[in-house]
Amino acid sequence: MLSTTVRIVIIIAMLAIVSVVLIVWLVNTSSGLQIPNIELVNGVIIPQIGLGTYQIQDEATAKRIIGEAIDVGYRHIDTAYHYQNEKFIGDKLKDLFDRNVINRDDVFVTTKVWNTFHRKDSVIRGLNESLQALGLKQVDLALIHFPMAFKEDTGEYIPVDSNGLTLDLNVDIYETWQGMEQAYHRGMARSIGVSNFNISQLQHIIKNGFVKPLVNQVEIHPYLTQEPLVDFCHQHNIVVVAYSPIAKANQTLFNEPVLKEIAAKHEKTVAQVIMKWLVQRNIVVIPKTTKKERLIENFNIFDFQLTDTEMRQISGLNKDYRITRFTNARNNPNYPYEWPLASK
Ligand SMILES: NC(=O)c1ccc[n+]([C@@H]2O[C@H](COP(=O)([O-])OP(=O)(O)OC[C@H]3O[C@@H](n4cnc5c(N)ncnc54)[C@H](OP(=O)(O)O)[C@@H]3O)[C@@H](O)[C@H]2O)c1
Question: Is the pTM of this model over 0.90?
Answer without folding.
Answer: yes
